[in-house]
Amino acid sequence: MDQRWRPSVTVAAVIEHGGRFLMIEEETSEGLRINNPAGHLDPGETPAEGCAREALEETAWHFRPTHLLGVYISRFQRSTTGEDITYLRFAFTGELGEEEKGRALDHGIVRTLWMTADELRATADRHRSPLVLRCLEDYLAGVRHPLSAVYCDPSIRGPGLEEHAQRGDGEGK
């Protein structure tokens, strides 16, 4: 029987402030892991919107994507169940906003961490995926693409919501 391949679409934020990167430590089926503020893209939102939402939900910090770092793909097999998952990640960098002190973090998030690039490299064995380090290295290498590189058709908003559709940059074009 033919099955259509459906990768999990995720968004991730690479957020630097004062030479440190905002990371999360989270409980996963593979144990305690370090990850970028990241998560699944929700229906009806652009990747940039999803990235800003996930950053806030996972870190309590507001974040405004200004550039696309890249689009990444990786495959993962859960050691506990053998489930085979492919992730398609849109990674962004941008401007750190205000922290919402006292805001509850998403389920499974143990804490936020501010880590240097060297600390992140030294903890690669604890990363949620190899994309954590790859996104960091691309950021440090100066990789930046305009947000307009991700085109979002108005149809993503669903019937009657097209007038609010955006290209991925929050600028509705």
What is the count of structural domains?
Answer: 1
| Order of strands in the sheet with most strands | 5-1-7-6-9
Total beta strands: 9
The low-confidence runs, each spanning 5 or more residues with pLDDT under 50, are: 163-173
CATH superfamily: Nucleoside Triphosphate Pyrophosphohydrolase
Distinctive features:
173 residues, alpha+beta, Nucleoside Triphosphate Pyrophosphohydrolase, 5-stranded mixed β-sheet, 4-stranded antiparallel β-sheet
Descriptive notes:
Strand 2 and strand 3 form a beta hairpin. The protein has one domain (8-164): Nucleoside Triphosphate Pyrophosphohydrolase. The N and C termini lie far apart (42 Å). The chain contains three helices and nine strands, in the order βββββαβββααβ. With 173 residues, it is α+β, with helices and mostly antiparallel strands.
What's the layout of helices and strands?
Blueprint: E1 8-14, E2 16-17, E3 20-28, E4 31-35, E5 38-40, H1 47-59, E6 61-77, E7 84-99, E8 109-115, H2 117-122, H3 131-140, E9 145-146
Parallel strand pairs: 1-7
Antiparallel strand pairs: 1-5, 2-3, 3-4, 3-8, 6-7, 6-9
